[in-house]
Amino acid sequence: MCPSAFGYLIETSDTSSEARDLRALVESYTRLFAGGELRESALTWIAVENKDHTPETLALARAGCQRAPESPFAHVQLIRAAALCKEYRLAVSSSSAARGAVQKFGDCFGIHLWRSLLAIDMSAADANTQIGPENAADAEYLYRKCLEVDPGNSQAILGLGLSLCALGNYDECRQLLKASLEKDEQNHLALGALGHVLLVEGDISGAVEYLQQAITVNPNHAAHHVSLGNAYWKMGDEWQQDKQYAYASWISAAKLDPSVSEAFSGLGKWYQQRGNDRDRAKKCFIKAVDLNRANGDAGQALAEMYLAEGSDDLCEDLLVKATEAKHDQQWAWKSLGFLLLRQDNHERAIVAFRNSLSLDRTDVLCWEGLCESYMAIGRMGTSVKVAKKVVELDPGRVSGHWLCARACMFANDLEASLSYFESAAKYASLTEFIPDLQAAWTQSLSVGRAECLVACAEKWYAEGLLGRVVDSSNAALEVLSIHIARFEDEAEDKSCSSYLIWSLISAACTWILRAWPMLETRADL
C-alpha cells in the first residue's frame, strides 16, 4: 500500500482515539514510510497517547504541520501535543487553522470528518479551561458545541461543568458534575470541582469531604490540594495555625506542581498571618505573581508590602503588569489610582480610577479618588459631579459631603459649598470615629467652613451685598474662635498649623472693616 493510501486511512480515522486499528495504522506508517509526509505527525500521535509531554513531542508536532500544512491529522496532533505540554494558548490559537484544514479536506473528498472536528473543539475547550477563568466563557461555548455533536461525551460533560464552575453558574455546574460522577464515581476532577462549589457557597465541611475524596483518588493533582488548603483556611483557628492543615495542603500543591500560583499565594498568606515571617511571605507572594500576574490575592498582599516599605516604583510596576495581564482586575486599577494620586500624577490617576469604576460603579473610594484627581487639575465642574456621586452612593459618608463642599467652593458655588459643609458636620457628629480621626474631621470641617464663609464675604462685597459681607465674616470669626478654643492646646506646632487660621481671621476682619463704614453711610442716608 502506498503512503497516500495509508495517509487517507489515517486522516479519516478518529484521530483522538486509542482505537487498536488507528494505533496499528500509525505504527505501520512510521515503520514502512520513513520519508512519508505524515511521519512526524504519526510519531506525535504515539507520543501523545503515551503521555510524553517533553519539548521533543511539541517539536515533532510543529514539524508535522510544517511538512503537511493541509493535513487535518497533522493539525489535530499539534493541538493535542500543545495541550499535553501545557502550551495552552498555542493549542487555542492553532484550532482555527485546524478547522480550516479539516473543512478543506472534507470538501475535497466529499466526507465529513466530525470526529476530527470534535477532537479539535475538545482540545481547544480543555486548553481554554486550563488557561484560567478569563477563558471560561470560550470553553463553555466549545463544550456545548461538542455535546451537540456527541451528547453523551463524558469529557465534554465534565469540561462544561468545570467551565460553568469558573463562571459562577453553580446550579447547572452541580448537575453536570453529579452526572459525571454517576458515570464514574472515581472521577477526581468532578469530586474536586464539587468541593470548590461547596467552598464558594459556604459549606466548608462538605467541601473538605469532597476534596479529600478527590485527593484519595488522585493524590498527585495539585489543584485539589490548593482548594483543600483554601477550605481549611476558611475554617479558621487551629485549621489555619496548625501546619498539618492549610499549610501542609499548600506545601503539597507547590511540591506537586511548582507552576501553580495559588499554592504560593496561600503559603505567603500563612507566613504573613500565622508564621510571623514577613520575608518568607514576601518571597511566596513574589513567586505567585511571577507565575500568574492575574493572581489578585498575591498581588494585593505584595502591593501592600511594597507600599509599607516605601517601594513605590516596585508597587507601580506590579500594578501596571497586573492590569496588563488581566484588564478586569479592579483592585489593581484602584490601587494604582491612589498610588498615582499620592505621587501627584493626576492625569494617569484619572485613567486608573475610571478603569476601576468601569468594573465596579459602586466603589465609593474610587469615586472619591477620581474627584480629588479632577480637583487637582482644575476640572471643578467635573469634580462637583463626581463628588455628588459619592453622596448619592453613601448619603451618610462624611468624606462625600466634605468633597462636595470643597468641589463646590472651588467651582465658586459657595452657597452649595456651605450647605455641604453643614451636612458634613452633621454626619460627623453622628458617626463614631476613633478620637484622633474625630478631631481631624472637626478641624478640617471648621476650617473649611470658615474658608468658604470668607470667600462668600469677598463675593458678596463685589456684588454690593454689604450686610451679607458682615454676617458672613462674623460667622467665619465665630467658627474660627471656637476652633482656636478647642484645638490650641493640641497643636504641636502652633506657628505652622495656625497660619491658615490667622490668615482667615485677618481676611474676615478686613471684609468687615471695608463693609462696615459703607453700611453706616447707607444708614445715614
TrEMBL record:
Protein keywords: Repeat, TPR repeat
Any one GO biological process: RNA catabolic process
Keyword Ribonucleoprotein belongs to the record: no
Entry GO terms, CC: Ski complex
Keyword Cell wall biogenesis/degradation in record: no
InterPro entries: Ski3/TTC37, TPR-like_helical_dom_sf, TPR_rpt
Entries under PROSITE patterns matching the protein: TPR
Renumbered ranges of TPR repeats: 188-221, 330-363
Superkingdom: Eukaryota
Protein name as annotated: Superkiller protein 3
Organism annotation: Coemansia pectinata
